[in-house]
Amino acid sequence: MNSDVVGYIEDNEQRFLDELKRWVAIPSLSADPSHAQDVRRCGELIVEHMRDIGLRSELLETLGNPIAYGEWTASDDAPTLLIYGHYDVQPADPFELWDSPPFEATVRDGKIFGRGVVDDKGQVLMHLAALEAHLRVDGRLPLNVKVVIEGEEEIGSPSFEAFLEHNRRQLRSDVAVISDTAMFSEDVPSLTTSLRGIVHWEVRVDGPRSDVHSGAFGGIVRNPIEALAQMIAALKDANGRIAVPGFYDGVMALADEDRERLQGLSFDESAQAQALGVPQLSGESDRLPLERMWYRPTLECNGIWGGYQGPGSKTIVPAYACAKLSARLVAGQEPAAIKRSVEEFLVARAPLGVTLNVKSFSDVRAVRTSHDHPAVQAAARAVEAGFGKAPVFIGTGGTIGPVSSFDRILRLPQVLIGVGLPDDSIHAPNEKLNLRQFFAGIRTMAQFYDELAVALRR
Known about the structure:
This protein has 458 residues and is α+β, with helices and mostly antiparallel strands. It contains 14 helices and 18 strands. It has helices at 3-11, 13-24, 36-53, 121-138, 160-166, 214-217, 224-233, 256-263, 269-276, 289-294, 335-348, 374-387, 401-410, 435-455; strands at residues 56-60, 67-72, 80-86, 106-108, 111-113, 144-150, 175-178, 190-195, 197-206, 212-213, 298-306, 316-317, 320-329, 355-364, 367-368, 392-396, 414-416, 432-434. The strands form five sheets. The chain has a six-stranded mixed beta sheet with strand order 1-2-6-3-7-17, sandwiched between helices. Strands 11-13-9-14 form a four-stranded antiparallel beta sheet. A hairpin with a 6-residue loop joins strand 1 (56-60) and strand 2 (67-72). It is globular. The two termini are 22 Å apart.
């Protein structure tokens, strides 16, 4: 690792921290239309910052919130890296559960607390700080860089794919790096090489025209809540396996070396169950817990409602019942086929006496990058240099829509170098980022650019 670059990073740690505080102070809530100007203001601040460190930068308009874009060109024959992140954040409610104001980033006990410190402003700033260190010390970058920081990730990136389609030529690159994930633990540096995809459904079961008296009509009218509950219960068998025909089509068995890698990670099932407040973990009984969390698909009921919800009792057969379902997909599964299979399964099990309506949403494919890809190997060397220990390869159960978009539209291999930790309270009160992770992340990114320039040399 370039000692002068490392020295620059260490000399400027406090300034980087102050910059993060400045970003966090802007409540860039994409979900709340009343904060639209704050979202734009945050994008403008990042553009200004990129210009200050030496990138060509501008705010690019989309159908929704703007994208902060920056670039630096080393040479026509140098490899090109696309850096992705987002500057919008989740709402901070409930405010009373925060130990310090969510938009006044506070440092205590070696951590910085505030909305967006790890998701994703702090991880974006890691890249910009690493770019700055190279430019200030060397006067140049070792490769071409394009930076795309969007303002709608927390609401599903509704404008992002149209942006990619419109700017295909401008965004042409060799590989993308995304820092919006977590490491396995503070003492186990890791690289994420797989992300699950996602699809959603809304299910509505209609019965009588309106709520009816359960004494007068109970026994001759099918109860929509009962019908819906039976249909949802049929989605899985007693061992936690999804019973929808064709659901597992394309799902690859875990390789022996991957299973050994999982077994080598410290994972206490009882402790995890206790931390979650459940008697024990569940799911496919013949699969490892980490395998179920990272490399197996899921199908969940996210919400269900219908009938009387008020105090006391109201003896009715309700007019309707509704549910929201979602599936997390793994590599090899086709979202469109999964949507269709689940809908057909529900339709086939709708009992007589009710009317069923199923709507599907989202179409995010899972992404998995080979451990042997040169960019992933370059990232592994960079993580080892930044954190002092070789990383393990892990998956994540979550979904980052733009990762799938890069894969499908730009055909880009992707490296996921996130430095968050499982206890960072992402999307929750008291979101935090360990300062050790933050500063080691900056060093890691600085080394990654050097490693990648060599690994992808043309």
